[in-house]
Design brief:
The protein has 461 residues and is an alpha/beta fold. It is 52% helix and 14% strand.
Amino acid sequence: MRKVIFDNLIFLILTGLISILLFISVLIHNKPFGHDFGSVERIKKTGVLRLITNNSINSYHYYNDKPTGFEYDLSLAFADFLNVDLDITTPGWNNMFSYLEQGKGDFIAAGLAITRERLEQVNFSIPYMTIQQHIIHHNMVFGPKSIEDLTFRTIHVRRGTSYHSRLEEIKKSGINLSYILYDNIPTEEFIRQVHEQEIKFTVADNHIAYLNQRYYPDIRIGIPLQEKESLAWAVRKNDTQMLEQINKFFLFANETGLLKKLSDRYYATTVESSDTFDLKKFHQRIKSRLPKYKKMIIEESIKYGFDWKLVAAIVYQESHFNPNAKSFTNVQGLMQVTAVTAQEMGINNRLKPSESIRAGIKYLNKMIHKFDYLEDDYERILFALASYNIGYGHVLDAMLIAREKGLDETKWQNVKTTLPLLSKSKYYKKTKHGYARGWEPVKYVERILTYFDILKQKDYI
């Protein structure tokens, strides 16, 4: 009898131990990477930061076989901050939160607004941008004048977005509107459909709407749907160390001006209502005028390693693709080359398209090399464009003013605030090159960046 009891006891103990070991094994093998304070340790061990984002113009996309987008650039800077590589996953908008929960990424950076519903799923970082939802409609369609005026209108949005949540709230409040939900369709696609009059209404955050108005100038940004919201990055509920690292990075990005620099790069040159006519003309002339000069621009751009679409944007800003253009200061041709510059660059006829393009690109290359000491390639281009417009000497004067004001004169976001001061006697009397219409190169650079951004999105040209 004792032997039977002893044997049963041993069996029960062994069974218990095996069960415990099996339970631990299941936990180890089924626990996704990144859970329970694991993300930071895993990132340090593997040297890889995993981003979950969405394929869209403002978040992440490819241009010239290179990744770009505001959220991508900011995430890349975060990876540099942690001294690791960045890995990117784009599972589709409606799958991002499940991917995060399953440990298939370390954080979401995709222009997420902080909402009550999302706070139940994830933890959010400190905000990095403030936005506001707006109704988007075609300029030939009468938009609603108020929230109450949404009655009997049909609005098309993506499922699971803050737009979806807000429309649901409005409908529950008693406004008899209709909305149609779609899965994994980016906001810019709805904006395109509004522009092409395939649908009448959609919703977009203001920064996305203004960005897309460059490409779709017939859209109108209508009434706001609610108060302003904050955008932030998302992490898993229990991943406090990851959240802490992201918050440290955002504080760093604010203090160093990195966040403002990226915001300016992607969103500062928004389209005002007065510019929509010019943008429509630009879209038309891309088709009617650019093809005549495209081959020349490409061939000459290749010699200097320039993106030909950037050069095309400069040509349009200078002459609207008109080879006979002539300014009140007697600069002429497609790239508005002065007589002195034409002679310096070795051309005889400024009105001949091939010679104007050759001289203009050669001169731009010269201006870029004036700023070889700048580490950032993008900053170098901005300074070169301003110099092309107003002259290298005046840009140097503006940089000197910036330095005297305690600003970093190697940053365009600082120099563009001091360039307009060259028109004020208090400042230009102390400069080497004197008076200048310093606000003009600031607008000049902004317009070229806008045209360039539009051209980048047109694969067919």
